[in-house]
Amino acid sequence: VQLQASGGGLVQAGGSLRLSCTTSGSTFSINAAGWFRQAPGKQREEVARISDVGNIDYADSVIGRFTISRDNAKKTVYLQMNSLKPEDTAVYYCNAIVATTPQASYSYWGQGTQVTVSS
After folding, report:
1. Are 31 and 97 in contact (CB under 8 A)?
2. What letter does residue 19 receive in the DSSP assignment?
3. Residue 14: left if φ>0, alpha if ψ -120 to 50, beta else—which one?
4. pLDDT 10s digits, 2-50
5. CA angle 66, 94, 96 (to 5 degrees)
6. Which residue in 115, 16, 18, 15 sits closest to 76, CA to CA?
7. 20 CB contacts (<8 Å, ≥6 apart)?
8. Mean pLDDT lowest for which of 24-28, 85-89, 93-97?
């Protein structure tokens, strides 16, 4: 199983980006999933998470600006980021609990995608 994160880039403050995290390989389903970010010199922090039944939580710093969603048919999780700020600059990672069979689930990480917000 692999997670492929994409959609990062350079954007001006106030702009938008949409990140995608797509699974490939022997994936039965995606259970819970989340987006994390790590800025230079800082610890990795959780930005948003979505459960297998659609319950969602956000970090306080992104509430009202970021939206996490999932497309189960495409086995993809998205992070829509609006009103971006320079402090959102970081490498963004997706994490998913992936069921490889109905009985077995494992945690996987994507490779990270760089988001840079200029002021």
Report:
1. yes
2. E
3. left
4. 999 999 999 999 999 999 999 988 787 889 999 999 999 999 999 999 9
5. 115
6. 18
7. 5, 6, 7, 76, 77, 78
8. 24-28
